[in-house]
Amino acid sequence: MGGVLICGCSGRAPSGEFNPSESSIYIKEDGSVSSASVEKTDQDYYSAEDLTAFVQGKVDEFNGQRSAGADSQGEGPVSVASCTVETGEGLSLVKCILNYDSPETLLAFNQEIRNPEIAFTELATDSVSVISQEEAFGQMAFTDSSGKAAELSKVTGKGDLRAVRLNGAGLVQTEGDILYMSQGCVLEEETVVRTPGEGVSYIIFQ
Question: Of 10, 109, 115, 117, nearest to 61 (Cα)?
């Protein structure tokens, strides 16, 4: 199915908070994480019914291997938030949004299915006061949302805010506005940043 994770099915519309036009991950203020795999294609891979079964099958297979993580309602570590396909002008926009119980699960799932669109090798999130204790954090140069250099003391002074650490290139959307990011990251919107291809990146949002 090309670059799309596992999806392209008609179904529930994506949430208003996270409805990207490009493959990306989403970090909420409470630390919960989601991913979106998005592809424009002129191919018709399956019917909507086949695709729905396919994406749910991949999720069920992964969750089944980790059955100890299921809750009393049977909700596993990975769940399908929405799968949609929009057609027009000879192309289809295929989008699949998944929710995860942890950053570790997001990485494990996308690595297991060999998803080239979500290719981060590290992902962690916590408060700035916790993440800033990492040695790499103290060695980083940061910029603010206007692109100006930010002193490390200003960044660490936002101890109660949410920080994200990633390794690898990709697009990241946050629930709140991004205040600071490590050098090399590119702010594309108030809540969207693109990380560089190599090394660890940090993002702080409110």
Answer: 109
pLDDT of 9 > 50? The answer is no
| Rounded Cα–Cα distance for residues 170 and 154 (Å) | 26
What strands lie across the sheet with 149-150, from one edge to the other?
122-127, 162-167, 200-205, 178-182, 142-144, 149-150
Can you tell me the mean pLDDT for 96-102? 94
Amino acid sitting at position 72: S
Burial of 120 (0-12, 13-18, 19+ CB in 10 A): buried
Pairing of strands 142-144, 178-182: antiparallel
- The whole-angstrom separation of Cα 189 and Cα 178 is 9
pLDDT digits (tens, 9 = 90+) for 51-86: 777 888 999 999 999 875 455 455 799 998 888 888
Residue 81 tokens read as 């938030």
pLDDT tens figures, 123-133: 999 999 999 99
User: Given the structure tokens 């936002």, which residue do they identify?
Assistant: 158
* Polymer length of the chain: 206
- Residues 125 and 30: their CA atoms lie apart, in Å, by 9
**Residue 15 CA to chain centroid, in angstroms?**
14
Any alpha helices (H) in the chain, and if so which ranges?
Answer: 48-65, 103-112, 128-131, 135-138, 152-156
